[in-house]
Amino acid sequence: MTVDVDRALVVGVDYGTLSGRAVVVRVADGAELGSAVHEYRHAVMDRTLTAHADEPLPPEWALQVPADYVEVLQTAVPAALEAAGVDPADVVGIGVDVTSCTMVPTTADGTPLCELPELADRPHAYVKLWKHHAAQGQADRINELARERGESWLPRYGGLISSEWQFAKGLQVLEEDREIYDATEHWVEATDWIVWQLSGTYVRNACTLGYKGIYQDGTYPSEDFLTALNPDFAGFISKLDGAPVAQLGEVAGQLTAEAAGWTGLPEGIAVAVGNVDAHVTAPAANAVENGQMTLIMGTSTCHVISSDVLAEVPGMCGVVNGGIVAGSYGYEAGQSGVGDIFAWFVSTGVPGAYAEAAAAKDQNLHEYLTELASAQQIGAHGLIALDWHSGNRSVLVDHELSGLILGQTLTTRPEDIYRALLESTAFGTRVIVEAYAESGVPVTELVVAGGLLKNTFLMQMYSDITRLPLSTIVSDQGPALGSAIHAAVAAGYYDDVRAAAPVMGGRVEAAYTPNPEAAQAYDRLFAEYSTLYDYFGRGGNDVMHRLKAIRREVHASGTSGSAPELAPTEEIA
Fold first, then answer.
1. Is 561 left (phi over 0), alpha (psi -120 to 50) or beta?
2. 258: number of Cβ within 10 Å
3. CATH code for the structural domain at 9-285+474-505
4. φ/ψ (deg, to 5) at 154
5. Local structure of residue 32 (DSSP, 8 states)
6. For residue 324, which of 350, 290, 355, 348 has the smallest C-alpha distance?
7. DSSP classification of residue 560
């Protein structure tokens, strides 16, 4: 160590759905000394390519521009250093996390294909964001074939592979733009690509590889399996291989001179192995023991939990040895839409009079609607909603599903719908918690991080509906702090992440506890939610799939018409 532990600093950078944030953290105690946020210039491209606005994207697409990620390093990191008022020479390491599964197709040297002038107008040349769900057809075929063949890796993913993951997205590229597929030398997780830009070294992190890359016990799905999917897909593994696999908290490399110029950090400091926003947050909340399920609640919610037990949980996003911390099995589940659902309703379903009333009280619409909704008795709105506006990640793993609000009448008000949507996301979490418990991985405590924890009404609702104590992370920048913790380990200041978490992370234990009367009242609504969940999600009625198919057919026919462009939904986390 060249910097004394009392002075040593680390930088964590968290890449969310719409922006990247950097935080400067003291190694000795986890104190956050300064932070900054940079919004992506191109946001999320889900309707058109930004540079080609006259060419609409098909439904369910979500793309990003990798240069936006570099701009975060060039702007947010220097701004965080300035805000902290520290000497950059005291920074000993940097770590990053990214929403996953977010994939970058690159050349052999890591150049994104969309940066090649001849490919700039090709959608498949761009980053496929985690919520790109247009590969559902490919995911369905992967799942069907894996079940038919009895592939041993399928139970490690709860029996279903998601359209969000590496193989489904890769197969979509092959089948829709063969030239882009052939030009892709590396199919890279965004977190690994950013580490590559920082260190000049391509290293694959074991976390995303295990969860989103179908990499279990040191192997991928066989070439025979890939050939059965599509003969031209047989060589896909070559686009994933070609770089070493490293564990979380290890050193990927040292900061290059170029990256030092971008960030204002010292050349040669440790660059930690890349990670995922959810998984780095558990240490930031000091929630790495068995039974502690960490919920990172923002535009979506990711649920992660560690256990000594290897189990098969229906619909889990995967179980990976060391996927969160070394020595434990890390489990992941998730809900594809949470804050996104609330933001969608506020931006499209609330009359102007509500906005005026909120402004008069110096509140935003979320705060105003929450206040109105919280005054209601449980069940008074007469509604039940399904939180599938962005599909279902767990436990059904089906992004052809869609949202539903049942029970509306001519007297239904915006606050009724808003409350029903809040409740639906809590019910969705309860389904996940119960699936884990029934599979031998009990949940004893919820630990919440992310922007939604500021909604105290929502937090109490989650505790009541799940009947679990709910703790809250101390940090306002959970993922960025978690990345900083991993940087401190990579720089050699802690033996491992489990040792660093109690010192640098923290949570308010049992900030919310279940109210028995409220829990009982919510049980009645949850029973109705469960009925609808099974009816629409488990084959009782396939109408949601048929509507998605009709939508795609109309779009493909070129007669879909045009709609006003909507601003991107606010990023809650």
1. left
2. 12
3. 3.30.420.40
4. -60, -40
5. E
6. 290
7. -
Q: Do domains 9-285+474-505 and 339-472+512-557 have the same CATH topology?
A: yes
**Scanning the structure block, which residue is given the tokens 């991107």?**
568
Q: Exposed (0-12), middle (13-18) or buried (19+): which is 568, by Cβ within 10 Å?
A: middle
Q: How confident is the model at residue 558 (pLDDT cuts 50, 70, 90)?
A: confident
E strands in 281-366: 292-297, 301-307, 318-321, 329-335
Nearest to 420 by CA among 456, 385, 464: 385
Q: Which top CATH class is 339-472+512-557?
A: alpha beta
pLDDT of 330-358, one tens digit each?
A: 999 999 999 999 999 999 999 999 999 99
Query: At residue 180, does pLDDT exceed 70?
Result: yes
CA 80 → CA 10, 86, 417, 476, 554, distances in Å? 11, 10, 39, 15, 47
For residues 382 and 379, give the distance between their C-alpha atoms in angstroms, rounded to a whole number: 6
DSSP string, 243-260: S-EE-TTSEEEE--HHHH
User: What is the 3-class SS of 264-297, one letter each residue?
Assistant: CCCCCCEEECCEEHHHHHHHHCCCCCCCEEEEEE
- Cα torsion angle, 367, 304, 104, 214, sign: negative
Q: Map out the domains of the chain as residue ranges.
A: 9-285+474-505, 339-472+512-557
Kindly report the pTM of this predicted structure.
0.90
